[in-house]
């Protein structure tokens, strides 16, 4: 299978991990040789309830028994999408009550950019240095990293950048700005939390100049950081909230949410201002609804903070210089990119799945399913500590 994978399936890097997957269940993925791997990555924060969660699986099967795709988004009332958007509204403030469902995070970001331009009649979009919002042209245009965007230029117009957590950039947000797009907690940049009330200052500035604040919660959202939505930690409510990844419980989804009045602008002048064939797909929406119900009806959200504590207590090692993030969105930093890569690959050999971050190459991503157990955390941390010991033995103390 590996040879065919490398030959026929388009690749994203010259060196994919290329694990040959046979099945996955709970917090484990099994390869075709029957070896089991503890999953500390959760499909890059997407499998919020682990693999094959019974509630999600049952919802998918039950929905498939009724109907799958019947019509493009927005024409027919289909119970899974209706219930999902209603339940999201029940957990959001009064200013965020209307949700548009799409197929991926990047599409949701593009929808949010369009909505901000349509709502304000302005064009400028401001994003943060080292942000990651996706790879369709709208979202990719919000990437400050020239090396990654240059071959694909031109990007969409009128995008400029500010530094995350840097107050002196606030005045770059002006009467020309349609929207400011920020990750609530920066992911690819290294799991960087907002400090010093940065997000509420941005929101205030947006309010003062008539721009919209768009918060990308595709990664921190859906309970991963100890609240259902990351913004709840930071005394701010966005004008447009973007979600994805963990919302689908392992199925492909994206969503953007705004006030009813704002969202209504996409259905008028021009009508069909944003359309999608598969957005709100009944099977995907049923999976997302089951995921959201499970996350909000159990202690999973509060448990993430207890699990974070356990991980922090376990991962004490001379080669861990810092652990960033919140809840189960954590990044352990080692002294160098080389050590990080060596450790991630050694852990994979030893049966623990870890991963990199996009722009912070010293970071080891730790984003397990919210359902991970205490025993599994201890098992995974032991594997990681053993790999760090091996690296320390090989390279010695670097201080
Ligand atoms: C913060 C953030 N925004 C947007 C995206 C893009 O989502 P998708 O890959 O579903 O298009 C990602 C994906 O990694 C992300 O982490």
Description of the molecule:
The protein has 399 residues and is an alpha/beta fold. The chain is 36% helix and 16% strand. It contains 13 helices and 14 strands. The protein has helices at residues 2-8, 42-45, 54-66, 79-90, 105-120, 137-140, 146-149, 198-209, 260-264, 282-297, 300-314, 337-349, 374-395, and strands spanning 21-25, 28-31, 36-39, 98-102, 124-128, 159-162, 177-183, 212-216, 240-244, 254-258, 322-326, 329-333, 352-353, 363-366. Strands 4-10-9-8-7-5-6 form a seven-stranded mixed beta sheet, sandwiched between helices. It is globular, with a radius of gyration of 21 Å. The relative contact order is 0.16. The mean pLDDT is 97. The structure holds pyridoxal-5'-phosphate.
Q: What's the layout of helices and strands?
A:
Blueprint: H1 2-8, E1 21-25, E2 28-31, E3 36-39, H2 42-45, H3 54-66, H4 79-90, E4 98-102, H5 105-120, E5 124-128, H6 137-140, H7 146-149, E6 159-162, E7 177-183, H8 198-209, E8 212-216, E9 240-244, E10 254-258, H9 260-264, H10 282-297, H11 300-314, E11 322-326, E12 329-333, H12 337-349, E13 352-353, E14 363-366, H13 374-395
Parallel strand pairs: 3-13, 5-6, 5-7, 7-8, 8-9
Antiparallel strand pairs: 1-2, 2-3, 4-10, 9-10, 11-12, 12-14
The structure holds pyridoxal-5'-phosphate (PLP).
| Largest beta-sheet characterization | 7 strands, mixed
Bound molecules: pyridoxal-5'-phosphate
Distance between the termini: 44 Å
Silhouette: globular
Oligomer classification: single chain
The computed structural class is alpha/beta
- Percent of residues in helices comes to 25-40%
Report strand order across the widest sheet.
4-10-9-8-7-5-6
Low-confidence stretches: none
Order of helices and strands: HEEEHHHEHEHHEEHEEEHHHEEHEEH
- Tell me the strand percentage band: 15-25%
DSSP helical segment count: 13
Structure summary, number of beta strands: 14
Gyration radius from CA atoms, angstroms: 21 Å
Mean pLDDT: 97
């Amino acid at each position: 299978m590996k040879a065919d994978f490398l030959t026929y399936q388009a690749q994203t890097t010259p060196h994919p991990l290329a694990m040959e997957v046979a099945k996955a269940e709970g917090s484990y993925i099994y390869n075709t040789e029957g070896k089991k791997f503890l999953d500390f990555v959760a499909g890059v924060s997407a499998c919020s309830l682990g693999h094959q969660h019974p509630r999600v699986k049952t919802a998918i099967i039950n929905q498939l028994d009724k109907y799958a795709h019947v019509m493009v988004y927005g024409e027919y009332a289909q119970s899974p999408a209706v219930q999902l958007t209603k339940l999201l509204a029940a957990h959001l403030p009064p200013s965020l009550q209307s949700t548009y469902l799409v197929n991926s995070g990047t599409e949701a970001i593009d929808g949010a950019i369009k909505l901000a331009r349509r709502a304000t009649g302005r064009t400028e979009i401001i994003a943060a240095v080292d942000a990651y919002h996706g790879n369709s042209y709208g979202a990719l245009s919000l990437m400050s990293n020239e090396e990654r965007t240059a071959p694909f230029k031109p990007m969409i117009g009128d995008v400029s950048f500010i530094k995350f957590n840097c107050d002196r950039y606030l005045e770059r947000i002006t009467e020309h700005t349609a929207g400011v797009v920020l990750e609530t907690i920066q992911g690819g940049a290294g799991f960087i939390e907002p400090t010093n009330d940065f997000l509420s200052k941005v929101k205030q500035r947006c309010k003062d100049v008539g721009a919209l604040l768009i918060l990308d919660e595709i990664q921190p959202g859906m309970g991963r950081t100890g609240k259902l939505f990351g913004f709840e930690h930071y005394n701010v409510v966005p004008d447009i909230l973007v979600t994805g990844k963990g919302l689908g419980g392992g199925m492909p989804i994206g969503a953007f949410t705004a006030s009813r009045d704002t969202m209504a602008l996409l259905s008028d002048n021009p009508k069909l201002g944003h359309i999608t064939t598969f957005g709100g797909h009944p099977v995907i929406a049923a999976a997302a609804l089951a995921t959201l119900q499970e996350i909000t009806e159990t202690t999973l959200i509060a448990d993430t903070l207890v699990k974070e504590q356990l991980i922090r207590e376990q991962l004490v090692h001379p080669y861990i210089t810092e652990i960033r993030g919140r809840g189960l969105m954590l990044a352990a930093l080692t002294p160098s990119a080389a050590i990080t890569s060596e450790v991630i690959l050694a852990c994979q050999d030893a049966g623990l799945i870890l991963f990199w971050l996009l722009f912070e190459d010293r970071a080891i991503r730790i984003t397990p399913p919210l359902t991970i157990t205490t025993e599994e955390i201890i098992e995974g941390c032991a594997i990681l500590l053993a790999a760090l010991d091996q690296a320390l033995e090989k390279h010695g103390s670097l201080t």
